[in-house]
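Its record is set out here:
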Amino acid sequence: MIPNFIVVDGVNTTLANAVSTTSTTITLASSANLPTLGSGQSMPLILQSASNASANEVVYVTAISGASLTVVRGQEGTSAQNFAVGDLAFCGPTAGTVPLLGIQTLQPTTSTSITPSYMTTIVQPNISAAATITIEPGTVVGQRVRVYGGAYAVTDQPNVTSGSPYFGLPDGSTVYSWVIPAGDTDSYIDHVWDGTNWRCTTAGQTVVAEATQDNAAPQWGQVESLVSNQTGNYRDIIAAFGTGTLPSTCWGQAVQVNSNATVTLPDTAPPEGSKVVLYGSPGGFSVASNSNQFIWSPSIGLASTIGPTTVDVPDGGWIEITSRGDAEYDITGGSPLVFQNTAPAFTNPLVVPDATASNEAVNLGQMPKVYSYSGTSTDVTSLVVSLSFTAPQNGNLIVFCQASAAGGVALGDNSFTATGATYINGNAEIGNLTSTASGSATYSVVAGAAVTLTFTVNINTATTLYGVVSALFTPN
């Protein structure tokens, strides 16, 4: 189960009472900036000896009353230790909390069950036969799983066939499986955990329930045959047609036109609404009407005047022509319209508001970003770890630095510099840690700023040094 962590700024104090290896309650010298924990929430806290930087322990705080904390000891691979009055206690990103802000990528080769262990899980099937991806229940509200299509059909399903968790679709209906067709590798299904069920949306295909009298969003299977009948389903192809007049049977068909040919429409008009699609080879082609006809498309300068009309179709292009049942033929699709910039365009894109507790449509700009860099060097007395990135927008950085030396050798005076970021609060800008193995601070940044965070680890005796600098960015 993924813990529901809360990491806060400014919790940086010392112990008011000694802590034994069996203590589950600790008292801090200050309650400043301690948060209010919600149901199921924990706060990571690092305990560290003031005299021995290598003596540290990660605990999870499960309850807070003033400066008194109820904790779970020895977390994230550390062991419970004895600490004295005045030893350090501070909150910051830890090895166990930073990954929860990252992305887990899975590439199953066969049918498998997915238990998400990160807040975002990407499933990219690398399969050699049809496969089923079973999504187990989430553990944190807002947890996301994205399942892509593969070379073969991918069936996406929850771990039950009835009850919860089900897949909730955008139209309010529920399903217990969804198939991404074979070869549709660009399509995916997004799942967002609402605490009980997976709420699903897609890209590359639209998930709707079968249409009813009150739900008019039809599935493609409900309209495919109707559409096919109306268009003739291009019941045949006339191949390699050169310069000349099309046969009267061309309507409802697709015509492949030779390079640089001029194709003339039939003399006799077909029933109104009849269509023909012509497509070309390299070099382009032209379509012309007879003297008693006209091709109409005012957007490209063709008026409703009886007389021969010629339309040029560019290299590799196509054109759809629809009969009005008399002398008029309308251009209803194809390259001439697109090249004249008259094709329909989306002028009012969907605008999603910022997410709230009850509205889980999250804007991309609301998502936090994690930047991190680590370094290791042997037989040295100094190690420089530097992290550079461009601030995506206005926001804040929670910066966390940590260092250690092989053999538990005590560190010297470490230092930290930040360019392109403005210090707000924390471990005195993390600089001058004086033998402290870790520290955190908060900075503000502006959109487009070139940010460089440099952490220098020093030691008196040459040995193997390790250092890491991480930054959690959250937009304003």
